[in-house]
Input
Amino acid sequence: MRQKNWRVVIVGFVLIIIALGFYFFMLSIASTSTDPVALMQTVGTVTGAAVGISLVMVILGLIGKKV
Output
């Protein structure tokens, strides 16, 4: 039997919310940047990596550990 690790699942979801909040916050600031395209490419890369790591955390937390 496997026991779900709810702490890891919750932290994964919180990190997804923070990453999306960061993306939309930077989207509102991008218009004042001298190079908004490069800024949003960097922000998109960072947000994608954070969401990817968070999804792995959620999946591994739901799989759980052996008891």
About this structure: The CA atoms of residues 19 and 47 lie 5 Å apart. Residues 2-66 form one domain. The two ends are 6 Å apart (CA to CA). The mean pLDDT is 95.
